[in-house]
Amino acid sequence: MNPINVVILAAGKGTRMHSDKPKVLHALAGKSLVQHVLDCAKALDPRRICVVYGHGGEAVPEALKSTGATFVMQEPQLGTGHAVQQAMPHLDDEGETLVLYGDVPLIQSSTLHQMQQAGSGLTLLTVNLDNPTGYGRIVRNAQGDVISIVEEKDATPEQREIREVNTGILLAPTKYLRKWLAGLRTNNTQGEYYLTDIIAMAAEEGVVVHTVQPNHEWEIHGINSKSQLAVLERTWQQVEAQRQLALGVTLADPARFDVRGKLNCGRDVSIDVGCIFEGLVTLGNNVQIGAYCIVKNAAIADGTQIAPYSHIDSSDVGADCRIGPYARLRPGTRLHNEVHVGNFVEIKNSEIEKGSKANHLSYIGDTTIGCRVNIGAGTITCNYDGANKFRTVIEDDVFIGSDTQLVAPVTVARGSTIGAGSTITRDTPAGELTLSRSKQVTIAGWSRPKKQVTSDK
Ligand code: UD1
Ligand code: CA
User: Fold this and answer.
1) What are the pLDDT digits (tens) for 221-240?
2) Residue 74 alpha carbon, nearest atom of ligand 1
3) In terms of Cα–Cα distance, which of 295, 309, 292, 229 is closest to 256?
4) In sequence order, which residues have a C-beta less than 8 Å from that of residue 7 and are 6 or more positions away?
């Protein structure tokens, strides 16, 4: 395969988004539009990716600075041909250049590979639409060869009848592209440098113009408004849902399922309605996710059940655990196998070993918990003194009574029992009962206050 350069056009204003943010930085499936295009381009292993930006100032290069792309400012914006011209000084003549668009986010590398295989010459990605309104039309001669693209605003009534349209995506030998772009003129209705005018130049020079069609029509859909963004988001989520179903995942409702990243599932996974998966999520065999859970950057091992309305972020959950409903696992949570975490339990930066339970209303932060520990309802680890954070260590077989505060740094030794309602500030000895409580007293004969009778008539 010829070496390839990729130019991504992303200078447009996106007026119809009614947003202060550049259009290409709006998110689809949890990732900016232009990042989708960059990730797809990277799959072609290009020599260089050049992003042409304009509106929104440095926001685009700032957002993409870790990608290794080259950024070129286009100011003013004089058309798609002018936009590609800005990138040319950064591209060497060897090989081909692929033009993509920052606001056409779902183009797939499989389609681009087909373009690369179309043969030498110029390759256009085209599509046949029932309603071609607004698109440039692909004009062919009697032999069926492409001879030009005519923009709708410049088209004759006959040309407007053409259903085959230009998606904008094209692949051209770089040295020809450079020459053709230099020859562009603005003698058209919009007074712009049209990239599409290079097609007629190629045809006149006898360069073959190939056409390739995308594998799915949604690959070439562009985003100009929030409405189009919402529609394409749903399309993408349906594609993802069908992919998961085809792999054997049970989805209670494929229309109420959102993946904003990558979801890997084992066998016999089932997911109830309204769940959102973000970042990289791995679910083992027989994992069940209840309704309305949000799971982000997490691994959940075989046989674990997550009950409804649980939030799991940057956590590692072992096998055969029972989590939720209404559990919150915050970053740095590591649960070993058979751990139970119940409702309104928040865990952060903590490790809990096999078979331990915290079933009700607790905060466990910066804590290490051994095996077979029972954390009573309402237990709080006081890990923060207002300035610094400290660790709590709870060893194997400890029983913490309800409504206990463990003031860190503190260690509750193996087999200890903590009486309910205690505030534990010092390490406790192994195997003993420790509690801190004022003695229960009874005031004999005490009576409740009575309502006072006022006589201010
Ligand atoms: C363009 C094509 C048309 C095609 C359609 C597909 C041209 C002349 N026409 O038309 O044949 O059917 O796309 O959607 O190419 N851009 C810049 N700088 C500019 C102008 C545009 O970066 O100076 C970017 C825009 O941000 C946008 C893309 O190029 O992402 C397309 O520009 P737009 O003005 O929308 O082109 P269309 O008129 O739709
Ligand atoms: Ca108390």
Assistant:
1) 999 999 999 999 999 999 99
2) 18
3) 292
4) 49, 50, 52, 84, 87, 91, 97, 98, 99, 100
Note the pLDDT of residue 454: 83
Q: Is residue 445 part of a domain?
A: no
Output the CA–CA distances (angstroms, integers) from residue 159 to 94, 148, 149, 209, 401, in the order listed. 35, 11, 10, 19, 81
Q: 390, 409 in Cβ contact below 8 A?
A: yes
> Is 306 a member of any domain?
yes
125 and 202 assigned to the same domain? yes
357 CA to centre of ligand 2 in angstroms = 21
Instruction: Please report the pLDDT score of residue 81 as a whole number.
Output: 98
Beta strands per DSSP E along 266-400: 270-271, 275-283, 288-289, 294-300, 305-306, 311-313, 315-317, 322-323, 328-329, 333-335, 340-348, 351-352, 357-365, 367-369, 374-375, 380-382, 392-394, 399-400
Residue 157 host element (H or E): helix 157-160
- Would you call 55 a catalytic residue per the annotation? no
Same domain, 400 and 262: yes
CA distances from 55 to 9, 20, 75, 77, 343 (A): 12, 10, 9, 9, 47
Residue 403 has what pLDDT? Answer: 98
Structural domain of 259 = 226-434
Whether 164 maps to a domain, the answer reads yes
- Write out the two tokens for 435: 């509690």
Is residue 96 within 6 Å of ligand 1 at its C-beta? no
Mutation test residue for ligand 1: of 32, 80, 86, 99, the one with most atoms within 8 Å of CB = 80
User: Looking at ligand 1, which residue's alpha carbon is closest to its atom 19?
Assistant: 79
Domain co-membership, 212 together with 233: no
Answer yes or no: do 237 and 213 share one domain. Answer: no
**Enclosing H/E stretch for 176:** helix 174-182
Alpha-carbon distances of 178 from 5, 169, 251, rounded to whole Å? 13, 17, 50
> Is there a domain that residue 341 lies in?
yes
Q: Is 22 in the pocket of ligand 1 (CB under 6 A)?
A: no
Overall pTM surpassing 0.90 (yes/no): yes
Both 262 and 375 in a single domain?
yes
pLDDT at position 29:
98
- Please report, for the domain that includes residue 21, its CATH number: 3.90.550.10
Spell out, as residue ranges, where the chain has pLDDT lower than 50: none
Pair 341, 426 in one domain: yes
In this predicted structure, what is the pLDDT of residue 457?
A: 61
**Tokens of residue 306, six digits:** 């997550």
Total count of domains within the chain: 2
